[in-house]
Structures are given as structure tokens and as C-alpha cells.
Design goal:
The protein is of the alpha/beta class. It has 2 domains: about 180 residues, Isopropylmalate Dehydrogenase, CATH 3.40.718; about 130 residues, Isopropylmalate Dehydrogenase (3-Layer(aba) Sandwich), CATH 3.40.718. It has 11 helices and 12 strands. Helix 6 links the parallel strand 8 and strand 9. The longest helix has 17 residues.
Length: about 325
């Protein structure tokens, strides 16, 4: 087991060490390879990510990633988009389910769904031009990209409740018609029950009726927005993990950003990073250990050892240490 560890910028440098402390508590034979990427590196060297960095990432099984600051500078090369394209991490997976001890924006805990987001094209294809009076971005939707994300979503749905929600905007964006048709066809092949919903309607239903959904599949931009929106159901961005999956590699990161406004204060919530590490364990098929980490997180939350965003007074390090200590207790 060989993982690349990227702390990145801002609070990434605080939450990833907390996640590693919990990982170390499991005493697994893992080689951790530190890789410096991001805005801080760009300010020092002129490069946020290099070809050598990419080679190191490709030599590892997977990546545990913190957060990156992306400045509004045309000269800055997006680290996340580069990694997703170079490693062909086509599926972004964001599970949304209640955490014991935490109440989200609604007083309900009857939801458990996964947002499956196409990760390599759409509005984030990287084909852009900026001129003095006009700027444009090309939205690319391909048959290949749509087929493989639909296939991933349908296979996931078959392992769960066999229900698929296809989110699109084909009434306005004609490129979404290709995506929608392919998702419908793939669901038929897999004998998965499906419905389709316009993205604006979905934004409402996701909060008003979250228990309706099992697996939600959508394009890049829509998935990005909806998954951040869904975070309010579980208590905030500090509690939502994600995985970026390809055929050969995987990349695990908390949904939240680098949060420069709180960086260095020791108050960042590390739970999303720890849950991302838990998803990494599941990817390695270490499901018993992943469940143990989940139990340790929920135990710590119910001891009110939480950061200020959850109403507590604990620091980032204290939360990580408490979860790691509980993991060791559970292992015995």
C-alpha cells in the first residue's frame, strides 16, 4: 500500500495531519509519500504542479488530499483539474448520510444517498478563452464520458437500492440530451429504476425531500454545486468526504476548500478529511477498519469533542487525537 499525501494549502495543512494520525492508529503497512502541490508552491516556484509531481502521483496507489487555493490568475494551472485529467479520475463520489450526534439543517435522518459526478469534462473541460470584451468556456459532453459515468452510477445503484436519479438541464442545454439519453439507456441495460430531474428542481428537492434519493448521477458543474448544497443536510462542508475514482488510481479529499480565513487558527474541522481517509480504506476493501473509523468518529462527536463549526471548543488536533485514541481502544 503506497499513498501520496498532499496537504496543499490553507487548512489542508491542518486536517490532513489529523487524518494521518487516525490512519497511523490502525497500524497498517502503508508507505506515505509526501507531495507538495498548490498555491503556496506556485508562489515559491512558479509551478503549482509539475510533471515530476504527476509521475510520483501515478506511481502511488492513491492520493490523500487536503485542500487547494486556486487564485483568479490565468497563469495558474488548476491542480485538481490537472490531476483528474492526467490520472483519468472520471467519477467523483460524494456520499451524503447523517452522522450520529450531528443535526443538519433539517431535523431528519432518514436519508442516505450518493452523488456521482462526471469528473473530466462538462463545464470543467478547461477549454476557455478570455479577451478584453468577452470570455467563454466550452462545455464538452462526450459519449465516452457519459457512458462510463452512467455505468459507474448504475453498478453502484445495483449494490444499493437500485434507484437512479439523472440530473440534467436538457431543456436548455442541448448537450445534456446526449448525457440524458445515455444514462437512460445504461439504466435499462442494468435493470435499474430511474427518473430524471432538471437541476433547478433538484436543488429544491434535495433539501425538501432528501429521502427520495439513492444514487444521483449528473454532469461536472451540476454535481459540484449539488454536493456542496447537500452538505447542509449533514451539518456542513466540514463533514462531507469525497472520492475521485479512475480505472487505475483514486484520489480522496474533503469537500471543503482551503478556507484561508481560518487557516492557522487550529479550528478547522478534520472530520471530512478523516472520512475521506475512511473512503480510502473502503477502496482498499478494508471495510471492517473503515467501519471502525466511522464508529470512532461518532463516539468522539457524542463526547462533544468537536470544533467550533459544530458548536464545540476543541481544536483540529484535539479532534484528530481523540478519534485516533478511540480507534486504538476499539482495536484493543
Amino acid at each position: 500500500m503506497r499513498i501520496a499525501v498532499v496537504q496543499g494549502d490553507g487548512i489542508g495543512k491542518e486536517v490532513i495531519p489529523a487524518a494521518l494520525e487516525v490512519l497511523d492508529a490502525l497500524s497498517l503497512p502503508i508507505e506515505k509519500v509526501p507531495v507538495e502541490l498548490g498555491y503556496d508552491k506556485w508562489k515559491k516556484t512558479g509551478y503549482a504542479i509539475t510533471e515530476d509531481d504527476l509521475d510520483i502521483l501515478k506511481e502511488c496507489d492513491c492520493i490523500l488530499f487536503g485542500a487547494i487555493t486556486t487564485p483568479p490568475d490565468p497563469a495558474y494551472k488548476s491542480v485538481l483539474l490537472t490531476i483528474r485529467k492526467e490520472l483519468d479520475l472520471y467519477a467523483n463520489i460524494r456520499p451524503i448520510k447523517p452522522i450520529d450526534g450531528i443535526m443538519g439543517i433539517t431535523e431528519r435522518n432518514d436519508f442516505n444517498f450518493v452523488i456521482v459526478r462526471e469528473n473530466t469534462e462538462g463545464m470543467y473541460s478547461g477549454i476557455e478563452e478570455i479577451h478584453e470584451d468577452v470570455a467563454y468556456t466550452k462545455r464538452v459532453v462526450t459519449r465516452k464520458g457519459s457512458e462510463r459515468i452512467a455505468e459507474y452510477a448504475c453498478k453502484l445503484a445495483k449494490k444499493r437500492q437500485k434507484r437512479l436519479e439523472i440530473v440534467h438541464k436538457s431543456n436548455v442545454l442541448k448537450s445534456d440530451k446526449l448525457f440524458l439519453d445515455i444514462c437512460r439507456h445504461t439504466a435499462d441495460i442494468h435493470n435499474v429504476e430511474y427518473h430524471d430531474t432538471l437541476v433547478d428542481t433538484m436543488a429544491y428537492n434535495l433539501i425538501a425531500h432528501p429521502n427520495r434519493y439513492d444514487v444521483i448521477v449528473t454532469t461536472n458543474l451540476f454535481g459540484d454545486i449539488l454536493s456542496d448544497l447537500a452538505a447542509v443536510l449533514v451539518g456542513g462542508l466540514g463533514l462531507v468526504p469525497s472520492a475521485n475514482i479512475g480505472k487505475k488510481h483514486a484520489f480522496f479529499e474533503p469537500v471543503h476548500g482551503s478556507a484561508p480565513d481560518i487557516a492557522g487558527k487550529g479550528i478547522a474541522n478534520p472530520i471530512a478529511a478523516i472520512l475521506s481517509m475512511k473512503m480510502m480504506l473502503e477502496w482498499y476493501q478494508l471495510t471492517d477498519l473503515a467501519r471502525l473509523v466511522q464508529d470512532a468518529i461518532e463516539y468522539t462527536i457524542n463526547q462533544n469533542l468537536v470544533t467550533p463549526d459544530l458548536g464545540g471548543k476543541a481544536t483540529t488536533n484535539e479532534v484528530g487525537e481523540a478519534i485516533a485514541a478511540r480507534v486504538k481502544q476499539l482495536i484493543g
